[in-house]
Write a structure and sequence with these properties.
499 residues, 16 helices, 15 strands, globular
Length: 499
Amino acid sequence: MKKIKFAPLFLILSLIQLNNFLFAAIVDTPEASLSPAQREWLIDNQAHAKKHYISEIAKATDKEVPAYNAAFISYTEKDFQETDKYLNLALNSNPKYGPALLLKARIEYDRHNLTNCFKHLKKAIKYHPFAEIPNYYFGKYLYERNKYNDAIDYLIDAISDNKLYTFSYPILGDIYLRHGEFDDAIKILEKGLKYSYDAEILYQLARAYKISGQKNRAIKYFGLFSYLYPQHPDIGKVTDYLAENSVKNIFTNGFEPIPERGESSRFFPVGEDVLYSVHWGIIRVGELNTEIIDTLIYKGHDAYKVRFSLDSNPALEFIASLHSDYITIIDQRTKQTYRHYLHIRENNIISEKVYDYDRINGIFKCRIIHEDGHIDYLEKYLPKNTIDGTSILFYSRQVVQERRTEFILTTIDETFVITEIGFNDVKEPIMVRDKEELAYRISGENRYKGIVGFTGNFRGWFRDDPSYLPVGSDFEIWVGRISIKMAMEEEQRLHKYAR
């Protein structure tokens, strides 16, 4: 009997360990040098991360970062006694440490100690490396206390600090609606939607049209909200409004359900490792490397582990320095993202991030490690069928296989933006490693500014064989166009820009 009981237990523990190993493997890249605490934080092992951060405090010369990180995790666990303990340690080590000042303000707000909260928020705005965050919280807290006029200033400052930190737009829009300033509400919400199709921005924009008497526009955007966010808490109000107005065909802005994808969609060859040369005119400005690393089972789903790396030419470091790795777990059939790791070294932007796409609950989660080592967490509602911005290259191969055109939302800098992929049913000759071959062409548009300024129109060519391997592309960027072509075999062997 003992063996019968023990065997399932042993199997369960083994599977848990295997899953932890597989989840952790996403941050395994030779480009990154993560501490044990950082690794555990990124893969969402908070208890282990906290333990490691606490152990770092005693050894650290500057204790504010590990102490703040221990306090931050304690705060997310609602362990306020531990939060106070490590937060006080962080502020004693450095009274001007911005992230700790912000966390102090947040916990004081939870305790309804507004005077102390606002005092620390003012300091946080001065000392935080990302002033948009404390500005947003100051505006949000004033809004929640019905101090609308005061809130406006901080929310506008947050947007001015970083227009892509999109949490301020819907609150600002709602304040304008409460003041009866409908045009201002619509203007700021349309600006926010330009940067990200966030649920709250879309919902408030539909409300703004409804309240201002623009019924057709309200129906349009409530319809789009109901399509993109069927799991949102406000979906009942939206569907009731659409039903009251006898809306049967909702507006989807060109988004469509992805088709059923079966065994024929599992066509990626594991072990594929391809280097591409990136040219701006005649200048070789960098290398792009894609790799299909492995297959795995991720939370019960058959998945691929893929990698996208970008390295700039070291001779051009006076212009730009880029050495970033992006590792993604994608579904084998749909090519949709489950988890995405970003090791970012893009000029002066240095960070580690993991995106989790919780499609069951419709939640997007982002865990961050900033340049100085302090951690952060961001969460939004997840639009239907959204993928990460670098996996769009792998996703495009699926679209080519299916001979279809698709609008899709992609995640760029924690915003949700549109990519259009158009299959033209056209083959064109293209030079691939000094040999001409006919390749399928797609064309489309990135409606955002992506990695190293990828924006606007693009074209791509894909091999006419069962792998649909990309063999070349060209993109608009902020300084013109760049071309990407499969590197020569010697260039592939050297991969000399990687470091």
